[in-house]
TrEMBL record:
InterPro entries: Cu-oxidase-like_N, Cu-oxidase_C, Cu-oxidase_fam, Cupredoxin. Keywords: Capsid protein, Virion. This is Spore coat protein A. Belongs to the multicopper oxidase family. Residues 48-177, 396-505 form the Plastocyanin-like domain. Pfam families: Cu-oxidase_2, Cu-oxidase_3.
Amino acid sequence: MKLDQTLRKFVDPLPIPKTLKPKYKDDQKTYYEVRMTECYQKLHRDLRPTRLWGYEGRFPGPTIEAEKNELVQIKWINELPKKHFLPIDHTLHGGEHAPEVRTVVHIHGAKTPPESDGYPEAWFSYRFQETGPTFQHEIYEYPNKQEAATLWYHDHAIGITRLNVYAGLAGFYLIHDYTEKCLNLPSGKYDIPLLIQDRSFNRDGSLFYPEQPTPATRDTPNPSVVPFFAGDFILANGKIWPYLEVEPRKYRFRLLNGSNSRNYTFTLDDEESFYQLGTDSGLLEKPVKLNQITLAPAERADIIIDFSAHAGKKIILRNSSPPVNENTELVMQFTVSLPLSDKKDHSLPKRLARKSLAIDQPVKGLRYMTLDTEQDQYGRPLFLLSNKSWSDPVSDHPRLGDAEIWSFLNVMNFPHPIHIHLVDFLVLDRRPFDVERFKETGTIFFTGPASSPFIYERGRKDTVLATPGEITRIKAVFEPYHGRYVWHCHILEHEDYDMMRPFDVLK
Ligand code: C2O
Ligand code: CU
Ligand code: CU
């Protein structure tokens, strides 16, 4: 039975994930081990413990922190049960022959050599199948040759990413660098990652995830993937509507939308403003003052909230992105109740980081990618990229070091967050076009002027909302590695079926 009544808001303190300790470290490399296990956690004061899957048995997983250029090795170990506890659709890729429980870890936003990037078909046991492993693991290597940024790690197994991430397999991966250190930004306990997700529950406190779309027909497979999932409860760092006690000073928050499908438009009470320091892949050139920000699944924003004028007050972080109701409209509460512990000046730096080098590089390739929809043999919507499915041959081969412009033509009436592995990119613009004419003739006829990227996406990005009826253009430089990568819609229900494509970076 689905839990339909609501739960008391702001009764649990916000959990802050612990930083993972290395098993071994010298000046060559840092070595970690991360076990994926089943665990039970209380997600709300009035809810019984919920069965979850977590990295190191925690949801969210421990935060992994690395320095720019630090060589990090992680042994990812799958110690999960043999059966999944969420509804597996056996008609999807990987559903037919693969083991039901399969995992592969991807660090979202990291520039990682292809063999360590978490290719969806490289789920564990794949390589060791012949010898029949008793436990399954993979050692991945992360050179971290990139600027300070808020990244995250999550599961990426073919056909079940939506279920593995929903079960709890997600955590933060932060890269620090010298530039960031010199900025005197709030740090330590004043630098807080916020993983925002939505979940639904059964009355016994277990996770609810739909078995089938509504309405389903006689032909709909059971279980079946659904075209969209919006949970009834909003969680921050694994607690439902938590609160955080803060001092009257500046805090840095690393906002991450880790939901399967939901967008969030964040605001503070009274339209209170805040400052953005960074986008998905790193710091901006200078801070930007905002009073709202929209994050699609997988997008991040590094922000500063200044509580110094609010001692004694309570400030709610809100969401206004549809579908939204009086519950999902609330995210968490800041309680400005702690005494100020130091009197240091925490003024905001005027300049943050260098501009992305990609801006000026000459463009060597243009690609047009359509975002399409069809019906599958069961009458369900099937979402595609460039009218191709995952298993079609590779059709995109950018050259190592080349700058390219990719244009995403969204012919649907729904926005899709498109993510490209390996690169960070700049959002160039969005421009409306005649969708009907394009469908009939294949030619692009613009119906209005191009608009600049939103004020909060004018920095390095790895995920961009491709808006309906528009062409969204991005510019990326394909480096520093060559080999097989993927790009996909980050609505996990779409990524699994079937908005994901491989691409090859050629040497
Ligand atoms: Cu956040 Cu391909 O993933
Ligand atoms: Cu990624
Ligand atoms: Cu999508």
